[in-house]
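User
Please review the sequence:
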Amino acid sequence: MSIGRIAMYVFAAMLAGVTIGLLRSWPSDVQLRNGAAQPQVPVIDTYISVRPGSSSPPSSAPSSSGATTPLAMASPAAPRPGPELPPGEPVRALGEGWWRTVAGTTAQVGTGQVHTYSVEVEQGAVPPQAEQPFAAAVDQALADPRGWTASGDVAFRRVDVEEPDVRIRLTATETARSICGYTLPYDTSCYAGGVVYVSAPRWYRGAQSYAGDLQGYRKYVINHEIGHFLGRGHEFCPADGAPAPVMMQQTFSVSNDRLADITAPTPQGLTVPRDGKTCVPNPWPNPEVPR
């Protein structure tokens, strides 16, 4: 092989090495396209907590300095008071279907026409020791100056032997339902045929609208049903934030909208407007009268 041919081979080999090096340092066409059009984006994990009031991710979740603040679901709004019976002590559902008059009388309270009343308890519905406290609560509700006597034309007197104008009876669940009717699927009291039937579960558990104020609710239910005895019909909330009229069906709700929904399938003597007005619970016919 001649010296010229050897020199040509050496030069070709050197040229090939330089070309390979340049090709290795130059990015591929695919890399160029991916790098220019789709830059890499870090993946961020976001955790949604279903625990009310908590925004912390689960303890097992990985942490990252690049992670955003975890999202938290809003806590569900507190349920609006409804017609269902509040939780509480079990109340006997069945009584014996007859009532015993609780012994005791009162002096006349109020002026004007006197209405006599008796206090009676269905036997088997409550223990005997509950009878006198029930009678005392009835007496207090009717004698309060904020009650029906504030008008000046109504008076009450309790009797236990003579025939009364109205009987106020503490009544077992199923007895009250059989008399008051099943059209509204809730425990309720009622006035029928000269008798106030007070639902025992309501007496001992109250209503959601009264938010645990059992004494207030008891005064309400007596005054409401006696209002029916006196010829008053149902009413609705007159103004947002006002005391609920005692003849409003506060057992079910003090919200006109909610009350309208509850009673729409079974008319209760008036059409309740869906006007957004909500009252505050009130057990008195005349709450403005000083005690």
Q: What stands out?
A: The first strand starts at residue 48 and ends at 49. The chain has seven helices and nine strands. The radius of gyration is 39 Å.
